[in-house]
Amino acid sequence: MPSREKTIAIIGQGYVGLPLAMAAVEAGWTVFGVENSPTKYALIASGKSPVEDVKDQLIAGALKSGKYKISDTSISVAEASIVVICVPTPLDDNRAPDISLLESAVISIAPHVQSGTLVISESTSYPGTVRDVVKPLIEKHKKSADISVDIAVAPERVNPGDAIYHQKNTPRLVGGLDAASTKRAVDFYSSICDQVVQVSSPEVAETAKLLENTFRLVNIALVNQLAQLCADQDINVHEVIEAAATKPYGYMKFTPSVGVGGHCIPVDPMYLSWWAENNGKSASIIDTSDAINVGMPLYISSRVRQLITGASKRVLIMGVAYKPGVKDVRETPATALRDDLIAHGCEVAWIDPLVDEWDGSKPVDTQWLCDVVVVATAQPGLPVAEFSKRGVPILDCTGTFKDLPHVTRI
Ligand SMILES: NC(=O)c1ccc[n+]([C@@H]2O[C@H](COP(=O)([O-])OP(=O)(O)OC[C@H]3O[C@@H](n4cnc5c(N)ncnc54)[C@H](O)[C@@H]3O)[C@@H](O)[C@H]2O)c1
């Protein structure tokens, strides 16, 4: 029986929770991975990984060693000294924060926390979530009033598909509700990360995480707007960007795209914007950037349709995951592109070597006859050259295929 001191429970075994579980096992912790999706639970229990960055063998080995146990109930929290919450924090239909999954995860663990349990939230949320939402819910639902719990926030910075940066070599921000919580969280992350950065409060850590992703959203919007302005005046935006990037300081290169996708960049900045509004202020730069990026697939749709010359309007989208190297289609801008093309009378099919199914549809093969190809995501292994050889016009939103004939870049 492993000691409670060396046991952690991780709530949510997805893109964030599963790599964390594997890193903790490697660092000598016994880990309960708590997952409430029956499909994901069954997959992991059979030694298969639902995320690209964790190999099947790693899960199978961890399960076999007894150091990793997949669980479909929060009861295992009672056996852990540390509980890390890694559940989704999406937007609702009004693009406002939806923290209901975080709230229900906290409510599900609270009756099982013991005195001295450290609860850490890795889920991205607006400043004040841990202090004003997580803590009161634990206080309300814990088994008895004399159970005292430490609480901290440690936002995750994982970049799925990144071959260089991972749990160990990505510095980790940690902020606790008090000195004891902070110290315990710092000690835990020091066991799995090379560098832990202690900040003075959970709010600093929460806001820093939102700043990181807002920085990307705003810069992507800037370059996406510039791409449209340059195309209008027949200036090659890619040459402009390369020219600007020769400046050795004070500039960071961003490139135009079909838009932003995934669980983070289109979502997290809206938490900051909502928080500002909730405090009677406006984060107008975020709202403007969001509008530019949300409008990008519609702009691309118009560019695609300009390439169609005949009556037939068959469009093949290549790469539908939200970024290269992953099979994740959450918030992918390819969805808005597809829907707008269909709304304009196009017949749309897709190919993505990493995606088996997208919104209930299956990919076509390279024999699918099309009038134009649009490369939305530079997924490895895309058959772009084959279509270029056939003389099919190709709109490349990724800037990757500039040397092939019949390719226009945005
Ligand atoms: N994916 C990323 O690249 C990334 C990077 C940094 C931060 N984050 C943040 O991390 C958090 C988690 O994101 P993710 O990408 O890992 O999501 P995910 O959907 O891949 O995984 C979350 C998992 O939690 C499970 N879950 C939900 N509620 C649960 C509960 N009560 N009990 C047990 N399991 C539960 C879901 O079934 C899912 O498998 C979010 O706040 C996200 O913003 C994500």
Output the keywords.
410 residues; alpha/beta; 2 domains; 12 helices; 13 strands; 13% strand; binds nicotinamide-adenine-dinucleotide; oxidoreductase; 6-PGluconate_DH-like_C_sf; NAD; oxidoreductase activity, acting on the CH-CH group of donors, NAD or NADP as acceptor; NAD binding
Task: Give a written overview of the molecule.
- With 410 residues, this protein is of the alpha/beta class.
- The chain has 2 domains: 4-200, NAD(P)-binding Rossmann-like Domain (Rossmann fold), CATH 3.40.50; 215-409, Rossmann fold (3-Layer(aba) Sandwich).
- Helix content is 37%, strand content 13%.
- Strands 3-2-1-4-5-6-7-8 form an 8-stranded mixed sheet, with helices on both faces. A 5-stranded parallel sheet has the order 10-9-11-12-13.
- It is globular.
- The structure holds nicotinamide-adenine-dinucleotide.
- Residues 11-17, 34-37, 40, 86-89, 101, 104-105, 108, 122-124, 156-158, 160, 263-264 line the site of nicotinamide-adenine-dinucleotide (NAD).
Write the layout of secondary structure elements.
Layout: E1 7-11, H1 17-26, E2 30-34, H2 38-45, H3 56-65, E3 68-71, E4 82-85, H4 100-109, E5 118-121, H5 129-141, E6 150-153, E7 172-176, H6 179-190, E8 196-198, H7 202-232, H8 237-244, H9 268-278, H10 284-306, E9 314-318, H11 333-343, E10 347-351, E11 372-375, H12 384-389, E12 394-396, E13 407-409
Parallel strand pairs: 1-2, 1-4, 2-3, 4-5, 5-6, 7-8, 9-10, 9-11, 11-12, 12-13
Antiparallel strand pairs: 6-7
Helix pairs in contact: 4-5, 7-9, 7-10, 9-10, 10-11
This protein binds nicotinamide-adenine-dinucleotide.
